[in-house]
Amino acid sequence: MITELGHFTLILAFMVAIVQAVVPLIGAHKRLPGWMAVAEPAATTQFVLVAASFAALTYAFVVSDFSVQLVYLNSHSAKPMLYKVSGVWGNHEGSMLLWVFILALFGAMAAWFGGNLPPSLRARVLGVQAAVGVAFYAFILFTSNPFLRLDVVPMNGQDLNPLLQDPGLAFHPPFLYLGYVGLSICFSFAVAALLEGRVDAAWGRWVRPWTLISWVFLTIGIALGSWWAYYELGWGGFWFWDPVENASFMPWLFAAALLHSAIVVEKRESLKSWTILLAIMAFSFSLIGTFIVRSGVLTSVHAFATDPERGVFILGILVIFTGGALTLFAARASTMQAKGIFGIVSRESALVANNILLAVSSLVVFVGTMWPLVAEMAFDRKLSVGAPFFNMAFTPFMVILGLILPIGSMLSWKRGRAERVIKQLVPAFMLAVALAGLVWAMQTGRSMLGPVGVFLGAWLVSGATIDLLNKTGKKRNYARLLRLPRADWGKAVAHGGLGITMLGIAGLMAWDEERVLVAQIDEPFTVGQFEFILKGVETVRGPNYVSDMAEVAVLKNGTEFSRVFPEKRNYPVQQMPTTEAAIDYRFLRDIYVVIGDAQADGGYVMRVYIKPFANWIWAGCILMSLGGLLSLSDRRYRVAAGARKAAPIAGVPAE
Amino acid sequence: MKLLQSLILSLVLALGVSPALAVQPDEMLADPALEQRARDISAGLRCLVCQNESIDESNASLARDLRLLVRERIMAGDDNDEVVEYVVARYGEFVLLQPSTGGWNWLLWATGPLGLLFALIIAARYLRGRSATPAKPDAGLSDDEQARLDEILKS
How far are the Cα atoms of A547, A550, A555, A607 from residue A533, in angstroms, in the given order? Predict the structure, then answer.
């Protein structure tokens, strides 16, 4: 009954979205206030309906209603409650429902917080947003309906893939989708601005918070996914340049570019058409990502429910929206007059450089991801493009970005003086060179990767610190730091976070140590500067798995400082073994222990890794998202949001 | 026929991401330097039945066969390039995780540099225009809109 209600509200939401996509857009075109005013209540209604639909599906999973096909295929009565809930989006149909739920959520938020938008712009934004929604409702209802019932109700379900039964992964998709789908709002703003034929500073200010929040969610989502890969897949890899990872990384790069170029629109009224283009591209890459994951054209570890029909449908959505928006852009971009003039050496130019590096690096990822497909279709060559290519082709862009970032972020608007900024940054440069030299002297190999990473990390963190200290004035009035706009703090924290992530990645890749061996119980072995003793292995029973759990003592200089418990689990329902690595997390390095099969002649296969600076990767991501949130909480956005109370006076007259 | 069998078997094993218990102690070469070379080579070779995993990371049995093959070639005295050539000759360029630069692949490798060059040229032209043009009179906003904009930007 509740399942049918969910199905029904989803169809209703589809209908409401059609109305919301048609009526306000016509109203905005013909200047009919009553028609435009339909958008806001429609957005709210649509959100409530999808929320009810999503709740109904969640309920079916929570009570393990196996008469619903989707629940039967992806759940099991013995599964812990957290994974019953996360099972809702651990499959194709449910994740698409989550997708439209978030799409409607963002649409409703744009309606609620959009009180200070000009009425026609608001109507257009909500109309375009609903048009995207219509496409995805149709996709769900016609190709991937989650509410289908089974004629014969099975006794129990087939369980969720055990690898997905993990807290990190339970929350990875929602955050990623919040980011992906959040970019739809920027897309709607861009298309609405093209329809209006005008982009001004206020537009830049409205778009920026949405970009920021999407980027923050994408950052958290990607970081969670990579952390999960690190501890779950059993050898400490954190990034594989897998097509699906690339699919989430490209929108992230574009969102990063967009949130910087929107600053230029807001402060200086330049780069307008470029910013519009970026907003269109950012969401288009979200759609491309969806296409890559769902169509299975590029096989990947993540591809669930790949199906040609669905792929074609999403390709259609992609062509209509991206193609339509780009056509509109081609027709209208010339009407957008840039106003601000600025010199070659200026903050504006630095942000242009930022945009170039982010956009071109994203192009490299895109071409690399699609190349196997292109090569097979055009040149009849079956080839692979893997991590070594991306590491080589992508990394230089990030190194250049890191090098110029502290300088660019301190140049003044309009006309900057490079030599002044460089003079201020000398201490940061010296510190970075000294640290890089130190680690170069300390390391055993001759790899430049580690020192370069340390240099960039130190350069970015100290550069961000100097930028903040500069704002305390000549007399170094530190109390002023607390009164700085939060956007300044956000900038410093996010840029510092980027440096820490770069250091972490370089450190981990340059200096990790590994040892694979057969360990005998109570016979010590050494890896790096640590000694390990396998104390024993016993069988433990979990809620829906059986586990061989080892006990390993970790010693340094003969004294034990940690005891870790790596596991090898077997999930009987899915007939699938997983390894649960045991990780001793420390500030400067992780110790990563994995237990393998028992050997015929006694002992167990073990692999032990020393992973230096691993935590720094995710700590940097946390800092980057924190920086984004600080910026988002800046007074000027809060005031802008509060301004909607005043809006009805000047705003839309009632019908 | 044996290849087909092992292919099917590995396919079964490789469905989904299986826990990586790749290199087993019994495969490893006694000489640490040679073993390190084998690891380096393996990291660049794709496991044919897996999804985007190198044979060094994969626990599919075909990956194991390839790892043993790499070690065999090393013991036979091949240098790193010869080992890779040997594997490519048997399994095609699909096994290379780092694509070659031959044929149209130059376009793939040139994407970054060419894209950057192209972007820099456009940006340079744009920036020169920006720093040269005099300020245009503001045409777009009516008084009403300007007042509204000011009000929003003031905050």
Answer: 20, 11, 8, 13
